[in-house]
Structures are given as C-alpha cells and as structure tokens.
Amino acid sequence: MTRNTDLDNLHPVVRQKVKTLIDKLAHENIPLRLFEGYRNPERQHQLFSQGRTSPGPRVTKADAWQSYHQYGVACDFVLYIDGKWSWNTGPKFKKYWARYHELGAEVGLKPISWEKPHLELQNLNLQELVMGNYPEGGDESWSENLSSNILQWTKGPTPPPPRLLFNRPELPSDEIDEEITPPIGITPHIHSIVQTGSTYRVTARNGLYMRAGPGTDFDILGTLLANRSVVVTKKSGQWYQVDLQNDGLVDGYCHSGFLVRVI
Questions:
Q1: Torsion on CA atoms 119, 124, 10, 167, rounded to nearest 10
Q2: How far apart, in whole angstroms, are the C-alpha atoms of residue 236 and residue 167?
Q3: Rounded distance, CA 244 to CA 154, Å?
Q4: Residue 56 and which of 130, 208, 229, 234 are 20 to 30 A apart at CA?
Q5: Phi, psi of 91 (to 5 degrees)
Q6: Taking Cα atoms as reference points, which of 78, 53, 49 lies closest to residue 62?
C-alpha cells in the first residue's frame, strides 16, 4: 500500500512539530524530506511481513498497531537527493542524519536507535495508546482517520476509537421495536426480527457507514467492510446500535437495511 504524507492525518501536536521541522531542515539546506507520516495498519502489517512471511529484507520490528505511526504520532524523514530517495547512512551523509535528530529533539520529536528516519512524539507509551489513552488536543481530521482505520481492521485486536467523536448530545432512549422496516427499495432479509445481543453481518458490497447516532445527520465514524460481523445492542427506528468487539460497549449506529442476522 502507498505511504501517506498527509499532515492532516497526524495528531495536531505532532503535525505542528513536523511542520516546524520541515522549515528548520529547509532553512539549513539539509536534504531530508518527509517520506511518511501516518501509516495505516494494513501497510504496517505488510512491512512487518517483509522478510518474515513475504520476500525482502526486514524493515520494521512492529506489526499492525504496534507502531506509533498507526496513531498519527510518528513520522519518517529520508534523504532526497537529485530527485531520488536515499537511506544512505554512510560517512558522507552522517552529518545530515545527526543534525536531523538534533532538530527533531528541539521540536519535541525523539529518534529511535535502530531506525534513523523515524521520529516520534516524546513521552509516549505504546501500551497507553493501545488502551485508547491518546494525547490531548486531538482534532476531527486526526480522529476521523484513526477511527476509520480502527473500524476497518479485521485481522486482529484494535485500540478503541478516539473519544472525540463520541461527544454528542444525549440520544433518545427508544424502546426496541419487534419488526424491522427496511428502507424503500430494499428487500427485507429472511431474518426480519431484531434480536439484541445477536450477531449480524454487513451485506453492503461497498461497505456500510457507522455513525455517531441513529440518522444521517450524525457524523460518520467509519466504514464497516462487507461481511464484517457486529453485535446489535438496540434498535432505534431503522437504525441498529452496534458493538464491534462484543465487549458490551457501544461503537455507533448502522442502518438496518444492510445488516442480516447470522446468530
């Protein structure tokens, strides 16, 4: 998968530090450029697999959700000389890498000993991020990107989405209806009785939006891929309240017309 240099996908604190670092490097004519900022879990998993279960040299020690890149709090800068990227760390370029690390430290980004291009936000703990304890000051562009990647990852455990998106007005506590009324033009599924606590499957070929509340006026928290399983915890009109990890916690709402009960 392609690398990501969109600064809006970085946490705002890191985003500002990266912008400052870019200016400092340019001011000193140091030929390092931003090569990658946010890295989604699929790309991280592919990089981790390289040299292990797929061809190529090993390039990272971290699998999906084990890297600060997945949380938008790390970046990689690489030499860019004569229109080409270079990871050369030989004597000729040693001074550039050293100064890059010095400037990174000045803005609050620390290097790691085994990977020269990598810088990450200081004073972080990966286990805290895994638990959903994200740095303060997150904004909509960062949280929406992170939440979307969390919701689409189906190959293993994920951290919880940032709470920023869940600060909504209190929702009406509708009673659970017995019958599902599908939207106009949608053929009712064979399982037309909603059963809370049951597992449902996404039937929308291009994925199904999950929203912060029961209606299209609520923000999109992410897209659930086709055939993704969810647990329905409640019905509100034509919308299902869903639990993605079957841990008793609500993750959002999906339209009932594109969910079919399997258990």
A1: 180
A2: 19
A3: 10
A4: 130
A5: -55, -35
A6: 49
Place of tokens 């989604």: 40
Phi, psi values for residue 7, rounded to 5°? -65, -25
Question: Residue 194: what pLDDT?
Answer: 55
How many Å apart are CA 36 and CA 69, to the nearest integer?
Answer: 9
In this structure, what DSSP letter does residue 161 have?
P
Return the H-helix or E-strand segment holding 76.
Answer: strand 74-81
| DSSP one-letter string for 227-261 | T-EEEEEEEETTEEEEESSSSS---EEEEGGGEEE
Burial class (CB in 10 A: 0-12, 13-18, 19+), 168: exposed
Q: Which uninterrupted H or E stretch holds 45?
A: helix 41-49
Domains and CATH numbers, the chain: 7-130 (3.30.1380.10), 177-263 (2.30.30.40)
The SS3 assignment for 200 reads strand
Quote the pTM value: 0.67
| Dihedral of alpha carbons 216, 167, 207, 260, sign | negative
- Looking at residue 154, its pLDDT comes to 86
At 173 the pLDDT is: 44
Give residue 196's pLDDT.
Answer: 65
- Tokens for 45, please give them: 């998993």
| Average pLDDT, 10 consecutive residues per value, the chain (263 residues) | 93 98 98 98 97 95 97 98 97 98 98 95 95 92 90 88 55 40 42 66 86 89 86 92 89 92 83
